[in-house]
Amino acid sequence: PQGSEEAKAFVNAFLKRSMPKMKDEAIQDVLTRKAVVLEHYSKKKTKQKRKKTKGFTAKQRREMHLFEIEPEQQRYTIFLPLHELWKQYIRDLCHGLKPDTQPHMVQGKLLKADLHGAIVTVTKSKCPSYVGITGIILQEFKHVFKIITKEDKLKVVPKLNNVFSLEIDGFISYIYGSKFQLRASERSAKKFKLKGTIDL
């Protein structure tokens, strides 16, 4: 066993190493009170920043032609199954389109629904050449619809100054394009006013 002097020397040396900021007098003062609180210096953990995966810019997407439909794919019959899926999606969204379903409820659901696959017709327009265009919506952008017609022609129809009609299971709904200039993802969160001035 160690002698008392050796033990005292060991304790003093240990405390100096453990508490390098304290002076010798302070250490001795602590020892006389028979209570020692050792300082603990924890190493700060450096948080690794997660790198965000950057997607393509709009310019890069245009250059890569990501949103362009190839001419050989521009056929009406190819997208008929998409229309059938869309009808089932709307039926599920409206909890079944029954004869006693309130029209304003269906209208409210359609305003926020995804329209890719819906068959629409341009009923009114300030440009007469657009009136009568009927087809399946293939792509919806903020300002235009891309529609494939039964004649296998891809039409780009602006929303502005056009009124579109949409029919499903006997329910006919009208979309005023001028009030509808939003991306599909933005429409789901927007609150549409039920009343207001309606014009082209």
Automatic annotation (TrEMBL):
Compartments (UniProt record): Nucleus, Nucleolus
Pfam families recorded: RNase_P-MRP_p29 (PF01868)
One BP term from GO: tRNA 5'-leader removal
A single MF term (Gene Ontology): ribonuclease P RNA binding
Annotated Gene Ontology cellular component terms: nucleolus; ribonuclease MRP complex; ribonuclease P complex
Annotated SUPFAM superfamilies: Rof/RNase P subunit-like
Predominant location: nucleus
Keywords (A to Z) from UniProt: Nucleus, Phosphoprotein, tRNA processing
Keyword tRNA-binding: no
InterPro entries: RNase_P/MRP_Rpp29-subunit, RNase_P/MRP_Rpp29_sf, Rof/RNase_P-like, Rpp29/RNP1
Subunit and partners: Component of nuclear RNase P and RNase MRP ribonucleoproteins. RNase P consists of a catalytic RNA moiety and 10 different protein chains; POP1, POP4, POP5, POP7, RPP14, RPP21, RPP25, RPP30, RPP38 and RPP40. Within the RNase P complex, POP1, POP7 and RPP25 form the 'finger' subcomplex, POP5, RPP14, RPP40 and homodimeric RPP30 form the 'palm' subcomplex, and RPP21, POP4 and RPP38 form the 'wrist' subcomplex. All subunits of the RNase P complex interact with the catalytic RNA. Several subunits of RNase P are also part of the RNase MRP complex.
Function: Component of ribonuclease P, a ribonucleoprotein complex that generates mature tRNA molecules by cleaving their 5'-ends.
UniProt similarity note: Belongs to the eukaryotic/archaeal RNase P protein component 1 family.
Official protein name in the record: Ribonuclease P protein subunit p29
Native organism: Pygoscelis adeliae (Adelie penguin)
Lineage start: Eukaryota, Metazoa, Chordata, Craniata, Vertebrata
